[in-house]
Amino acid sequence: MNDQPYTVGPFSGPRYSYNAKRCGAGETPCAICGKAITDIDKAQTVCVVDGGDSWGDVDSDPYDAGYMGLHFVGPELPSEASEALMVRVTNQAEIEELRDRGALFVLNHSGGKDSQTMTILVRKLVPDRQILVIHAVLEGVVWEGDIEQIEATTEGLPLILAHPVKTFFEMVERRQRWPSPQQRQCTSDLKRGPIEREIRRYLKQHPEYRGLVVNCMGMRAEESPGRAKLDTLKYSKRNSKAGREWYDWLPIHKLMTAEVFETIRAAGQTPHWVYAAGMTRLSCCFCIMASRGDLRCAAGLKQDLYRRYVETEKRIGHTVNMTGRGLEDVTGIPVDNGKAVTDGKEEKLEGT
Question: pTM value?
Answer without folding.
Answer: 0.73
